[in-house]
Design the sequence.
């Protein structure tokens, strides 16, 4: 039997084959009968009879054939993939340098992109971990005339009014965060525990159900002191070992304060902005009259489908009505005097909770970093694309042979795609590993106040992102060869030396390198701007000297320290005993440490009258102990508060210099009176003026502060300062750990019920306050470093390639008398011209693009000329260095050898 | 003269068996299979000829048969079938089933009265 050459299965060929087979049967059969002597017509009739229903049998058979064809095609695809993959593996192993460089470059680029994508996704893009996260609304208040840079919260009165009357909110919650001292017991030291005092509606608003016991009810908020408490899952496990029998038991917090444990929250349930261990009812008595006390955090749950603008308009309308109803809280305009809200500029501020929480600056920083790694990825991709181009030129003969042997474009595509996909797949695996490792590095560096920090982890979305990018890259690299495979058959006629690269390829190659350099310039500029900002920030005079100072918090339980005299006695004893330890140069305490977050403001007035009115301001009133200024090395003019002038009950107050200028223009404030703006308060005596401190952040202007004493003037009843203080101890010869154990020992000797927490060197506090700048700077520096290296590698590769392909030409030139120096210069010039074009493009891009950085910069212009010059110079230097090797190789070309080929 | 025609399952199994048996002698095209069956059954077994093709293709799908295009002695293009190793195993199985079946039927028919 001779065989017939058959083409692969298609539907048409399958039909033809079936018809051929059946027709063969019928025709041969007719011949059989004719041979037996029947006439043609009789034979046909006989065959028709014997065959049965032709169409029906044909249909049945065709049906089976279709199934066979489908199976066959699947098999063929699998087979092709397997064959091509095996072939690709073999090819890649034959050129390990290409494979390794391509994979590593891609993996680096993809890994970096995956890391920053995860950061961006987890912090900015992904909804908050609540059931109706996208409907949660933040409600705050702005007081531009009082504090232009700060946002305040809402009052209890507003809470009740909004909750009852809002048409756009389905629910509204209110809470205050606090720290509760929990006395120690056997096995557990006393500690301060993060607490929230919340409205009962907080749970419905956030969609939190208890895992054990019950939630508290709205009517449990009427009592002034909480009678019930709920535990976080973490605290329940930590303190009670997850014992379900705690429900119904009291949590003893003080002699006369032991709320009943009514429930445990599920693991992971927390406030949007912080972890909390104790949840207690806020004092919310609907019968209590409203007060001008806008300090309570509010979260609303908008009705489904309501836009934020509608909530804003709704609440502002309600606020206007609320102010009319309570003229004693919000005094209206009278006798030509502006109304209270006009004077303060008081206004509601309504945004989506997620936007409020993440903040413009953070999401901007993360988007910028994402842009940066996108650039890195593009640069990496350009390098790999270049590698592929080089490879295609090297393999043009192979392609030509394949084409000549009848491989279609489809076959070639399958061939190259398998190879590039295989490469991309390996790179993707590497990238996930790189991304995972990099994310851990990034998390170590990340600022502690980065929102949602503990939600960050590499997850399925990150991996999906990485893999899809890798596949996209693989597909792109795979189709590159197709654009150049057309004319390749002609190559075979060129004989052995047919390896001239196409002009188009060289142009593409140069364009890729120019683009790389341009992108690297942009990245490098961004990084350099951040570095400069960071340097400026470090030069800022904070107003105090953090070196050698250790800080920690010490909290006194209110139950046993309810008298100012007792509190003062404790601090006096503690600071004197610490101060007496050898190596301790100074010790003091403050209720609010600089750079540890914004402190609110309290209205103060003086006894100094200007234009018939007492001067006043709204400033943080921070209780400090004697020794605080000396320890922090904050210069004080006049006399700081001392134990003796504190105990003599004059109420010694120190005010900051700018506040002195504001309150006492033209006179010496020392000796003047100052007090909280309330009838219950007596005047305190100003004893000194302290230098300004940038308490709210190094990048912000200094804050006006009034430092109050632990003891009020005689006759003042309700003055409880110093229950929770941050100690500062200047002991440069001791590390923070030793200082803490020293303090722990002394505190325990005085009162073992008092917890000491949150110890850290003051320098760390300063560093943390700059963390966002340093974090962005570090990541941009890393990105720029990778970009610079990759661009250098790209330049090197292309120049080397061009040199090796111009060997003959260089040989001719040298044979005609060109000097070594001229050849070197020619190569260098070629490289520098490319780099220069890239730098110019990059600088233009940077000028247009770094504006987005403005919000992150500190006292540096986004178009800082020094930075741009430095960046350009650096890139040109890299270009020079990258082309040195190829230039030297070019110079060493032996004309005879080169011309011989 | 019995004809194997409409789908009696028993008879379709029989047709498969006949085809397998025919092909056990070597590669054949469809018509050759038919001629072989007619010849060896002395024209006693007549198959509705169209039914041959769904059967052949189904057996090809089951990988009992390998198909290949070739030329006949008179140089006509035809589709040749040959037994695959799986087909050969199938033939063996079918043959023993068939002989057990005919044997059993034989016993029944040879039985003499009720016991």
Sequence:
């Amino acid at each position: 039997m001779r065989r017939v050459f058959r083409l692969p299965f298609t539907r048409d060929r399958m039909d033809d084959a079936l018809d051929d087979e059946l027709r063969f049967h019928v025709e041969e059969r007719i011949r059989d009968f004719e041979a037996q002597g029947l006439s043609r017509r009789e034979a046909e009739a006989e065959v028709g009879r014997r065959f049965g229903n032709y169409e029906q049998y044909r249909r049945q058979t065709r049906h089976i054939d279709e199934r066979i064809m489908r199976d066959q095609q699947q098999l063929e695809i699998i087979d092709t993939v397997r064959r091509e993959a095996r072939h690709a593996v073999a090819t890649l192993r034959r050129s390990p340098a290409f494979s390794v460089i391509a994979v590593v470059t891609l993996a680096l680029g993809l890994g970096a992109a995956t890391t920053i994508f995860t950061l961006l996704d987890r912090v900015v893009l992904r909804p908050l971990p609540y059931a109706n996260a996208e409907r949660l609304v933040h409600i705050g208040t702005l007081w531009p005339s009082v504090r232009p840079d700060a946002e305040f919260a809402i009052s209890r009165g507003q809470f009740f009014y909004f909750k009852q009357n809002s048409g756009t909110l389905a629910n509204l919650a209110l809470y205050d965060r606090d720290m509760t001292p929990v006395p120690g017991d056997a096995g557990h030291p006393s500690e301060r525990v993060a607490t929230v005092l919340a409205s009962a509606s907080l749970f419905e608003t956030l969609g939190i159900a208890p895992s054990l016991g019950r939630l508290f009810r709205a009517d449990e908020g009427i009592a002034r002191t909480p009678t019930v408490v709920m535990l976080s899952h973490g605290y329940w496990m930590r303190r009670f070992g997850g014992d379900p029998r705690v429900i119904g038991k009291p949590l003893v917090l003080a002699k006369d304060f032991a709320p009943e444990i009514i429930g445990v929250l599920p693991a992971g349930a927390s406030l949007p902005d912080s972890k909390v261990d104790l949840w207690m009812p806020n004092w919310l008595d609907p019968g209590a009259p409203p007060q001008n006390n806008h300090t309570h955090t509010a979260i609303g749950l908008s009705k489904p489908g309501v836009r934020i603008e509608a909530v804003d308009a709704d609440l502002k309308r309600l606020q206007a009505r609320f102010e009319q109803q309570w003229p004693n809280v919000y005094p209206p305009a009278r006798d030509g005097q502006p109304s209270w809200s006009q004077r303060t500029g008081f206004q509601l501020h309504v945004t989506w909770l997620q936007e409020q929480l993440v903040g413009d600056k953070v999401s901007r920083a993360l988007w910028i970093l994402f842009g940066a790694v996108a650039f890195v990825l593009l640069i990496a991709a350009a390098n790999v694309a270049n590698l592929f181009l080089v490879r295609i030129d090297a393999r043009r003969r192979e392609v030509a042979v394949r084409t000549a042997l009848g491989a279609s474009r489809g076959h070639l595509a399958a061939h190259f795609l398998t190879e590039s996909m295989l490469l991309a797949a390996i790179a993707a695996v590497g990238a996930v590993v790189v991304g995972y490792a990099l994310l851990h590095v990034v998390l170590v560096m990340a600022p502690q106040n980065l929102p949602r920090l503990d939600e960050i982890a590499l997850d399925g979305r990150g991996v999906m992102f990485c893999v899809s990018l890798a596949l996209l890259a693989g597909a792109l690299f795979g189709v590159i060869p197709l654009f150049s495979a057309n004319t390749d058959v002609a190559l075979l006629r060129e004989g052995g030396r047919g390896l001239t690269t196409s002009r188009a390829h060289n142009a593409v190659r140069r364009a890729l390198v120019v683009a790389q350099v341009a992108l690297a310039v942009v990245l490098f500029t961004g990084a350099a701007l951040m570095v400069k900002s960071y340097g400026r920030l470090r030069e800022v005079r904070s107003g105090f000297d953090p070196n050698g100072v250790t800080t920690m918090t010490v909290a006194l339980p209110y139950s046993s320290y309810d008298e100012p005299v007792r509190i003062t006695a404790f601090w006096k004893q503690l600071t004197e005993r610490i101060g007496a330890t050898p190596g301790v140069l100074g010790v003091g305490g403050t209720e609010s440490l600089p750079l540890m977050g914004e402190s609110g403001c309290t209205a103060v007035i003086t006894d100094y009258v200007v234009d018939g009115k007492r001067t006043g301001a709204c400033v943080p009133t921070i209780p400090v102990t004697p020794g605080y200024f000396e320890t922090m090395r904050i210069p004080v003019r006049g006399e700081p508060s001392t134990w003796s002038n504190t105990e003599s009950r004059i109420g010694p107050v120190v005010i900051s210099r700018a506040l002195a200028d504001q309150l006492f223009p033209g006179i010496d404030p020392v000796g003047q009176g100052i007090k909280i703006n309330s009838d219950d308060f007596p005047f305190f005596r100003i004893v000194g003026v302290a230098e300004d401190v940038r308490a709210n952040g190094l990048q912000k202007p200094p804050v006006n502060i009034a430092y109050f004493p632990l003891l009020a003037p005689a006759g003042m009843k309700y003055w409880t300062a110093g229950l929770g203080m941050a100690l500062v101890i200047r002991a440069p010869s001791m590390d923070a750990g030793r200082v803490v154990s020293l303090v722990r020992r002394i505190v325990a000797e005085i009162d073992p019920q008092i917890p000491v927490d949150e110890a850290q060197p003051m320098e760390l506090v300063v560093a943390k306050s700059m963390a966002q700048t340093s974090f962005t700077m570090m990541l941009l520096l890393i990105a720029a470093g990778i970009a610079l290296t990759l661009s250098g590698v790209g330049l090197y590769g292309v120049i080397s390639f061009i040199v090796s392909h111009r060997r003959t030409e260089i040989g001719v030139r040298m044979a005609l008398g060109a000097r070594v120096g001229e050849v070197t210069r020619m190569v260098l010039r070629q490289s520098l011209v490319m780099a220069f074009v890239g730098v110019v493009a990059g600088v233009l891009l940077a000028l247009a693009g770094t504006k987005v950085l403005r919000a992150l910069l500190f006292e540096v212009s986004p178009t800082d000329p020094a930075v741009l010059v430095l960046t350009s110079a650096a890139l040109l230097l890299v270009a020079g260095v990258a082309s040195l090797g190829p230039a030297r190789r070019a110079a060493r070309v032996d004309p005879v050898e080169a011309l011989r080929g | 003269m019995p004809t194997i025609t409409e789908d009696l399952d028993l008879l379709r199994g029989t047709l498969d068996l006949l085809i397998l048996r025919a092909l056990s002698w070597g590669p054949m095209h469809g018509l050759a299979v038919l001629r072989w069956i007619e010849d060896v059954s002395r024209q006693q077994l007549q198959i509705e000829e169209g039914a041959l093709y769904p059967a052949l293709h189904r057996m090809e799908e089951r990988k009992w048969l390998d198909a290949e295009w070739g030329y006949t002695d008179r140089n006509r293009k035809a589709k040749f079938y040959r037994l695959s190793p799986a087909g050969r195993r199938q033939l063996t199985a079918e043959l023993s089933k068939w002989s057990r079946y005919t044997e059993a039927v034989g016993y029944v028919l040879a039985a003499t009265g009720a016991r």
Notes: The first strand of chain A starts at residue 136 and ends at 142. Residues 54-94 of chain A form the longest helix (41 residues). Chain A is about 50% helix and 15% strand.
